[in-house]
């Protein structure tokens, strides 16, 4: 399902985010997640809300990852045996100018 893919893709981006300074928590914006995953902003927000990851704290929204969610994600990733190598994917958009009339 889309939601399953979005969850996986968003978690991969969040988990791959590094902090800019030692001792500081990593920071990422919704727009950055959208850019890295090519998922629409509304879908990123609704997916974060469905996973209960987004909270409002001191005047701003923050993403909070619980340990049980991280453990669940690691177990699911270990279970998946099929991996897709994106370097092997080649996509060409359909050329609509060659449509038969």
Protein traits:
2 strands, 101 residues, globular, two-stranded antiparallel sheet, mainly alpha
Structural description of this entry:
This protein is mainly α and 101 residues long. It is 45% helix and 8% strand. The protein has four helices and two strands. The protein has helices at residues 2-15, 30-37, 41-50, 67-79, and strands spanning 54-57, 60-63. The longest helix is centred in the first third of the chain and has 14 residues, at 2-15.
Give a quick precis of the structure:
By secondary structure, this protein is mainly alpha-helical. It contains four helices and two strands; from the N terminus they run αααββα.
Radius of gyration: 17 Å
Task: Enumerate how many helices there are, as a single number.
Answer: 4
Uncertain residue segments: none
Identify the quaternary structure here.
Answer: single chain
Tell me the series of helices and strands, N- to C-terminal: HHHEEH
Shape: globular
* Strands, total number: 2
Structural category is mainly alpha
Mean pLDDT: 84
Helix content: 40-55%
Distance between the termini: 36 Å
Strand order of the largest sheet: 1-2
* Strand content bin: 5-15%
Let me know the largest β-sheet. Answer: 2 strands, antiparallel
């Amino acid at each position: 399902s889309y939601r399953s893919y979005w969850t996986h893709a968003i978690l991969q981006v969040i988990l791959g985010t590094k902090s800019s300074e030692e001792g500081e928590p990593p920071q990422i914006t919704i727009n950055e997640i959208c850019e890295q995953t090519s998922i629409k902003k509304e879908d990123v927000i609704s997916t974060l809300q469905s996973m209960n990851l987004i909270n409002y704290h001191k005047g701003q929204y923050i993403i909070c990852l619980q340990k049980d969610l991280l453990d669940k994600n690691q177990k699911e990733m270990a279970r998946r045996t099929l991996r897709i190598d994106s370097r092997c994917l080649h996509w060409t958009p359909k050329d609509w100018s060659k449509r038969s009339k």
